[in-house]
Structure formats: C-alpha cells, structure tokens
Design a protein that fits this description.
Radius of gyration: 23 Å
Number of strands: 11
Strand content: 15-25%
Structural class: alpha+beta
Oligomer: single chain
Distance between the termini: 46 Å
Shape: globular
Strand order of the largest sheet: 4-3-6-5
Largest sheet: 4 strands, antiparallel
Length: 444
C-alpha cells in the first residue's frame, strides 16, 4: 500500500472535507508549556476545556487550511461544539462510537483515501485520533439533532419550489411586503414564549397577526401592527430568503430563534420586478451599547442618541470619554453577520437606526445604525452549502468522475432539498445563538 503523507492527504482536498462535518470554522491558542497543557482554560457551563484540547483543534484546523486565524477559530468552534453536544444529549441524542467511525470514514472518503491512512497522516503531523473523533462527533451530532428537531416542521410544496426559483441569480428581482413579531425571551419564560410563538405561527389572518404584534412584539414596528415597508429579497439574510419565498400571502413562518428572542414573519404580499435586485458584498454598520436593556431609561437614551446622529461617524462623538467597548463599527460580508443583527439591518436605509436588540441576557440595549451597503460588482456562481455537499455525497451525486453533462439548472428535487436544508440551517443557527447567549462561558 502506498504510504499516505500529510502533503498527499491535503492534495486530496481535505480542506473542503472539513467543511462537510462542521459548517462553522472557528479558533484558539498555541504553544503552551508542557506542565500547563491540561490546565482548564475555558469553562462552558459545567464543562471544562483544556489548553491541550484547544491546541489540538487549532492544529487540526491549520492542517485543514481553514480560512482565518486557526487560534481564534478553534476557540470559538470548541465552545460551540460543547454547547451543541450538550444540547443534543439533554434531548437524548448521544452518538455512539460506531457512528463516529462511519463519520471518520466519510470524511476520509471525501479525500479519496482509507480512514486508517487519513487518521495516520494527521497523527504524523501531531493531531491525536481523539481530536479528529471529537471534531467529527460534534459535527454529526449537531446535524442529526437539528434535522430531527426541525425537519418534521418543514414541508416543501410545488408553490414553494416555484417561489424559490425567483431567488436564483438571473431571474427577475423580487420584493416582499412583510409583518414581523419579535418575542423577547426573559429568563425562565423560554417554554411559555415558544408555545406563544407556535400559536401565532398558525394564524392566517392579517388582523390577528397585527393585533398580536401590537400586544407582544418588542420590535419598533409593533405600533404599526408589525408591518414593514417593501423589502428587496436580496436585502434579507440569505438563510431567511427561502423561508419567506415559500410562504403564501397570509401565511406565517415557523418560529425562528434569534439571540434572546423568537421572530415570526407574515407574508403580506410579493412582487416580481422587471430587473434583478442587487446583491451585496458587504454591510457596514455600528452598534452603540446602552445599559438597562429594554427599560424606559435605556430606550429614552437610545432615542436621544438617534435624534442627535445623522451618520455612523457621529456616534464617535457620542461615545467619546466612554469605555471603547460601548461602540463597535465594522464592515462584514452578509453571511458573517449574526441573524438578529442582519434582520434589523435589512429594514434600515443608510443612516437609519433601530433599538430593538439586546445583549448580555437582556441587560444591554443595542442601538444599531446602518452605515452603508457595498454592492457586488459581479454575480458569483451559485455556492453549495456544506450540508448540501454532504447530501450530494451520500446520494451519489458528487460531480467528480461523472461523465454526464452538467444540467442546465437545478431540478425541482434539488431545489426542494436546498429549501429544506436552508430552513433547517436557519433554525439551527438561531438555536446556537440562543444556546450561546444563555450559557455561562468563562475564558482565561
């Protein structure tokens, strides 16, 4: 048998393989003294993470050529893995070792080599087999858990598929008229709020939805019955688009978890435009943090600040003399923006603000301001998500080695699978944000 070196392993595209198991790649620290290797450096609720675990994960990500700083990425990823595995275990899903074995084989197969050679090549570079198995275990556990939890809620009709076609690049533009309800989750009220959201999601009445928005929604649109202005579909977060396009007028989305709250959207109308709407490469925004959560004092402070600023640059004057962490400003690709922030930004024009979000378990109010959007200069080819690639591999649909010509466009079955997966991923991302916001995380 030919010896498999690390160089040969990487030449088989293992960087792409890593994304199949974990759609989120994150990082951590390196090069500790030997005596400190097994020191606890992070506590996630009751779980301890050692320096050795962090360094091993960082090395694994570096070998997989994960984008970004492997130190920071590994720290974030291993925290989230702990939350994912514990959440699944609480609901009775614990992956057995045989399933992990199959996961390692699947990962190795994507590189075109046996699992023993795959693990051996990583070991030559200093990565323990246990590290690989933990990586695989967390990814498959989360995939199975979120599919089991959210999959039964999702059905895809022919109308859903037809609407989804409208969001494909090259088709005419689409804009939607929505109403929203944002239900804040106070400590100890999680179950009650989720039941409340489930009841609202069953309504088909515009009047009933608007009434619920006025009574219950924490969004600034509550006074208008949750009604929003027309929005280009491309301005919404990518994961939300197929969910909205799958609705018929009057229908309400499934409850969507976001940080510290649950969101519901009712489709009021949809309109096809003559020209495609522009896609955005980056969104620049600023966040000014105000103590007091949704208290009257905090909201009044947010209103005064909003009245005093016209541009994001004006916020520097507001924050002058305060700790630097009270103001954050940056430009991010749309898929890098947290779901709740992306939803708020979608409703804003440049220079507009919102004060609908909180952080620190509801103790800090966020005054969000849109600084600007940078349009894409050219349309990239359609991208397949990690889970979609995995589904293709499992169904024998991988392109490599296929002699058949590429189809002119996605089939209805492929669109249906994509809609299902995007909805599951949207629910899963919201759940992960919620788990992280509720967790006790102590880092050294």
């Amino acid at each position: 048998m030919q010896k498999v070196t690390l160089k040969r392993l990487l030449s088989h595209g293992i960087a792409a393989v890593s994304v199949v198991i974990s759609a989120c790649l994150f990082t951590l620290p390196r090069q500790a003294d030997a005596q400190d290797l097994f020191e606890t450096v992070i506590k996630v609720n009751d779980a301890s993470i050692t320096r050795y675990e962090l360094e091993q994960r960082a090395l694994l990500l570096e070998l997989f050529r994960a984008p970004g700083d492997p130190v920071r990425l590994a720290r974030e990823q291993i925290i989230e893995d702990s939350l994912k595995v514990k959440a699944a275990a609480r609901d009775g899903l614990v992956l057995d070792e045989d399933a992990v074995d199959l996961g390692v084989e699947e990962l190795a197969a994507r590189a075109g080599i046996p699992s023993e050679d795959f693990v051996g090549a990583l070991a030559q570079a200093g990565v323990d087999e246990a590290t690989v198995r933990d990586f695989v275990r967390a990814g498959i556990t989360w995939r199975n858990y979120t599919t089991a939890r959210f999959g039964p809620r999702i059905s895809v009709s022919e109308d859903d598929i037809e609407r989804a076609r409208m969001s494909v690049s090259g088709t005419p533009g689409v804009r939607v008229l929505l109403a929203e309800i944002i239900l804040p989750i106070d400590p100890g009220q999680e179950s009650f709020v989720r039941q409340q959201a489930e009841r609202i999601s069953e309504t088909r009445s515009f009047q009933q939805f608007s009434s619920a928005a006025r009574q219950l929604s924490a969004s600034g649109s509550a006074a208008q019955g949750g009604r929003l202005n027309w929005l280009p579909i491309t301005q919404l977060p990518a994961a939300l688009r197929p969910i909205i396009l799958a609705l018929s007028p009057g229908e309400v989305s499934e409850p969507l978890p976001i940080q510290g709250a649950i969101a519901l959207f009712q489709l009021r109308d949809i309109e096809e435009l003559d020209q495609p709407e522009r896609e955005y490469a980056a969104i620049e925004y600023a966040a000014y943090y105000i103590n007091g959560g949704r208290s009257e004092q905090a909201r009044a402070r947010a209103a005064r600040v909003a009245a005093d600023v016209d541009t994001c640059d004006d916020l520097y004057g507001i924050a002058k003399g305060q700790p630097p962490e009270v103001l954050e400003r940056g430009s991010k690709a749309p898929d890098e923006i947290p779901n709740d922030v992306a939803l708020e930004l979608a409703k804003l024009d440049t220079g507009e603000t919102s004060a609908n979000l909180t952080r620190a378990n509801g103790q800090t109010l966020v005054l969000l301001m849109l600084c600007g959007r940078t349009a894409k200069t050219e349309a990239p080819p359609p991208q397949r998500g990690a889970e979609t690639q995995q589904a293709e591999a499992q169904n024998g649909e991988a392109e490599e080695g296929s002699e058949a010509a590429a189809p002119a466009g996605p089939t209805p079955e492929q669109i249906s699978a994509l809609i299902r997966q995007q909805r599951i991923e949207s629910f899963a991302n919201g759940l992960l944000e919620q788990l992280r916001s509720e967790a006790r995380i102590v880092e050294k």
